[in-house]
């Protein structure tokens, strides 16, 4: 009876379902998108010496998503659609071409119009006209990079963001907390001290930064207004005062304090100045970081013997362990909309320290960094794609970056001394 | 970093010379885990009664009498904070001194080598200072004479990225604030 | 989480009630059918057993006659002999009489045997031809299936070798395309049936198809029309890092 029913139903549906041959392809080649950014035609001379299209090319190349063609390898340098022969670009195996024209305006400003073309389908995908002062050439270039990046990958561009980091002289007698563009340009020192500065943490509005200063009496947590430079002492309890982390709404700071006996995680409400204790375990609990929902905190704990990553639900109090592979896992940060953790990982005792990513859904741990050693302090870009970290390279402390979804790595150029403790700033408002 | 160590040694040596002919050095940069024969030699020079030696303070006489008190650094294994048996004698000597001299006070500074993360090392450094503090208290020292502070990986004794440098940086320093 | 029984806006009670009613209905429907099936199955088994026993001599007679003509009469005689078990002799005798009664036309009249034998031969031939035809059809169908599988794997390999997915692709994203081909194998159109949600990945899949441009297809026109005129491709970058 049931069989008959199913048979009838099957017949009925088979009328609608076509018996189409379906082939499943499950492997491809992971590769960056070949793109050409043709040198823009400029009638304006730039006082800063910055070349707009240079900045765009560097942005796209550093993102890890694009393989940018060098201008010398281009067969032609078109500026308008009339000069654009798609066949030439197909020969060069390019998938997208960007052209632009910059002109000087009467008030000393400059104006740039750019176009993005799809080579395969031979059509224009994007065009914009932007204006700016001479000092804003880099800002305009980053905005163009953001637009191109988002158009072609569907991911919001992070080229207009800033990074904070600490530089020190080899003798370790002077420490500077600095902020620069995410490509390392336009560095500005916001704090200089004889004491070690570390663990900078950006407020979500990008206007304040919290950090730890290691004075003779011990570690202290400060909060500084970036524009005014005014700094406020947040925590100077007995014992440790460290590892500040801003909550997603910018109202709270998670911290590590040891005033009650051993390092534990606390949360202070910056408006009410009320303190809440989050962990209570005789093991070391530190390096808190908030999940985007503001209700979970991930942290490093030595409670199982070696440092591993844990997550606590602030409402239910439930604590779960997240890392099970490796001898030492610490300093976790979120990437890819919370699907991935990026952390410092040592596979076995005595082994190297590298930056690794942990896919929270599949439980897969992958080493991201190579070529550097003693990797630490990973910080993720706001679009969750790039990781900047501190490492040793040829005996110097440098900043390096690696993409979470690809193999692109690059070193952030530093002027002098040792660079450490990067913190990637939020999207500009 | 090496500059700092040598400067410290030079300064302390000058100071020591200024007080007596004693060449006892406070520098811990060269100190190894085992007793230093060079130190013992300098101790014999400081024994009271030797000709050509100026007035020696009581404390220093006491300290000179016990070479262990000149050893003010205790070392640890990687990622560990428990006291190793070879350091118990040193700690006992300091405990005895502190018990005998209630006016003396000490800051215990915990340090780590550069491996691992900055913050976890700050916490580990505190652990290393705290275990020494607890040990001394168990030996009878008044906790009020003891302060502990952590400097994590921020103030290495030896700059370098090899095992020998690292082993010298995983330490707790016993710094007398008052004798 | 306490249930608010007095809360008029709560949907919990009606939902639970509906679920129960539907559950009961389903249960009643299912159990009746199962009961029906059981009842239907039991009786024929019971009856079938007896019929088989009684008809044993009948099937032996018919096929033997169709295959071997001279052997037929001998076998009939053998059936008369008490070769079958001594117990059911009475039954056999009864069966024989019944058989004879049921088949008056076939064994008895001697002059009609050739005609009837011919008839049976024809029927037998037809049956044989049917079987042979079915076998041939099955064989052809299998060959076609093999061909389809063969060309499918060739197409798969070609696409794999040129498909470059963007670094932002996730291992569980899937693009579904419909590709239109002409008998030479050329691609004439590509339609995005289902987006993966990742525009860059969708584009990379379409571009892979256009890069291949010429798909291997069977020469057999009928098979091409049936299977390869339009095909569906599902592309999923399982080897992606994310």
Q: Helix proportion of residues of chain B, in percent?
A: 40-55%
- What quaternary form is this? heterotrimer
Rg value of chain B: 16 Å
Sheet having the most strands of chain C: 3 strands, antiparallel
Taking pLDDT < 50 over at least 5 consecutive residues as the criterion, the unreliable ranges of chain B are 16-50
Taken as a percent bin, the fraction of beta residues of chain C is: 5-15%
> What is the tally of beta strands of chain B?
4
Shape of chain B: globular
User: How many angstroms separate the termini of chain C?
Assistant: 38 Å
> If interface size is counted as residues with C-beta under 8 Å from the partner's C-beta, which chains form the largest one?
A-C, 35 and 40 residues
Describe what you observe in this structure:
The complex is a heterotrimer of chains A (429), B (179) and C (242). Chain A is mainly beta and 429 residues long. Chain A is built from four helices and 32 strands. Chain A has helices at 2-16, 52-62, 86-91, 137-153, and strands spanning 21-25, 29-30, 33-37, 41-42, 66-68, 96-104, 110-118, 123-132, 162-168, 175-181, 188-193, 196-202, 208-215, 218-225, 231-235, 241-246, 252-257, 264-269, 275-277, 285-290, 296-301, 308-313, 319-321, 328-335, 340-346, 353-359, 364-367, 373-380, 386-393, 396-403, 409-412, 418-424. In chain A, helix 2 crosses helix 4. Chain B is of the alpha+beta class. Chain B contains six helices and four strands; from the N terminus they run H-H-H-E-H-E-H-E-H-E. A four-stranded mixed beta sheet of chain B has the order 1-4-2-3. Mean pLDDT of chain B is 77; it is low at 16-50. By secondary structure, chain C is mainly alpha-helical. Chain C is 62% helix and 10% strand. In chain C, helix 2 (57-67) runs antiparallel to helix 3 and helix 5 packs across helix 6 (199-212). Chain C starts with 11 loop residues before the first helix and ends in a 7-residue tail after the last strand. The model of chain C is unreliable at 1-5, 34-45 and 47-107 (pLDDT under 50). Chains in contact: A-B, A-C. The interface between A and C is large, with 35 and 40 residues. Strand 1 of chain A pairs parallel with strand 4 (230-235) of chain C.
In short:
The complex is a heterotrimer of chains A (429), B (179) and C (242). Chain B has 179 residues and is α+β, with helices and mostly antiparallel strands. Chain B has six helices and four strands; from the N terminus they run αααβαβαβαβ.
